[in-house]
Amino acid sequence: MTTALAMWHRQCLFHWFAVMDSGLAAEFIIGPAERPGPLAAPRNDECAWEDSTMKMRSFQVCQCGAPLQMNEQEAPTPQGTQVLLKMLAAGVCHSDLHIWDGYYEIGGGKKLMLADRGIKLPLTMGHENVGEVVAVGPDAKGVKAGDVRLVNPWMGCGECKVCRRGEENLCLKPQNVGVFSQGGYATHMLVPSHRHLFDIGKLTPQQAAPLACSGVTAYSALKKVEATLRDEPVVIIGAGGVGLMGVTLARKMGAKDVIIVDIDAGKRDAAMKAGATAAVDGGAADAAAQIQKATGGGAWAVIDFVGSSQTVSLAVASITKGGSIVVVGLFGGDVTVPTPYLPLRAMSLRGSYVGSQTDIAELLELVNRTGMPGVPIRTRPLEDVNAALNDLRAGKITGRVVLTPAA
Ligand SMILES: [Zn+2]
Ligand SMILES: [Zn+2]
Fold it and tell me: Ligand 1 center to residue 152 CA distance, Å?
């Protein structure tokens, strides 16, 4: 037990909803380094669907880490508020690799194991989905056959107070698509309710799909520092995929100065091309002093898309009086913050986890109005899903791969 997060879990029995590097939610427990029993390989017959009408094809994780298997079944008939989509685009997210493996590396040889709490195999992954409505349940409202919609994958129970105010991403009974419920690596997808569907406007399905994960994760984090975003520099730590999305969205949201912090010179360059106005080497011994200088005396807002001991400590050392730190990344680690800092520096240290229903709607409006973030998108056929995941694991993919079923 080396991390504070592990201690939380064991002592408080809280479930930790982990935000992976791309913002995907999953529920983890700390476990031994081996794969857990609950996610061990299912019997083969669990993946053998008997129905052979071949109306719906799904590519499923039937065994952790093993190639996804194509299964066929009759496309379901939507009931109640359900909506059946014909898939048009499904983004391949880095966090799918962790779901596929059944664990998440947190460094130091430790692993966070996916618990079996609601995560059942076979599982159709894919949480960045856009589809065309083909059938609606009798109680579904606001959508009709032919509508093209983005699915908000961060679903809750739909009944608790948190869900009713639109913050389903914070529900204690998550139903997240592609994690706790069947996702979009398929020809069709059954969405539980019309309320999770959003008009993509003039965006193409391929453009809109990645907004459901990396886009809304970055947007929701930036919203938490909106009070100073236009008037003060915002510091973004980590220029990976979500961090770059954060840089471009910060500019679209009105930030004049965006300071990127990364230990990798190439990634700092990429962030400068994406709209950052200054760059700091996060590995430099005087990184905090550099950030304080670049921000004119200390940062009002730091978004940490890495979330390691080093990056959060750097953020704490870099803010000015009244400054805010928002941690998004899940590299893992722990920090010690002198408690007098909190009142004496009037500082805020908080986390941000994917995004709410409102965040998704606002993000779509923002991107429709100001243009797509400059993240390269490559389209591949759905049948290539295993190759796409392997390419992602091998680091061969720049930007986003979006899968599209054959027409
Ligand atoms: Zn994701
Ligand atoms: Zn709920």
Answer: 12
Select from 315, 330, 351 the last residue of a domain: 351
CATH assignment at residue 220: 3.40.50.720
How many angstroms separate the alpha carbon of residue 89 from the centre of ligand 1?
Answer: 14
Burial of 92 (0-12, 13-18, 19+ CB in 10 A): buried
Task: Answer yes or no: do 157 and 250 share one domain.
Answer: no
For residue 174, how far is its CA from the centre of ligand 2 (angstroms)?
7
36 and 168, same domain (yes or no):
yes
Same-domain check for residues 316 and 243: yes
pLDDT (average), residues 67-94: 96
Torsion angle, CA of 187/191/194/197, rounded to 10 degrees? -60
Distance 189 CA to ligand 2 centre (A): 21
From the CA of 98, which ligand is nearest? 1
Query: Among all ligands shown, which has an atom nearest to the Cα of 168?
Result: 2
β-strand partners of 278: 259
Residues 233 and 322 in one domain: yes
pLDDT tens string 36-79: 333 333 334 444 333 334 489 999 999 988 999 999 999 999 99
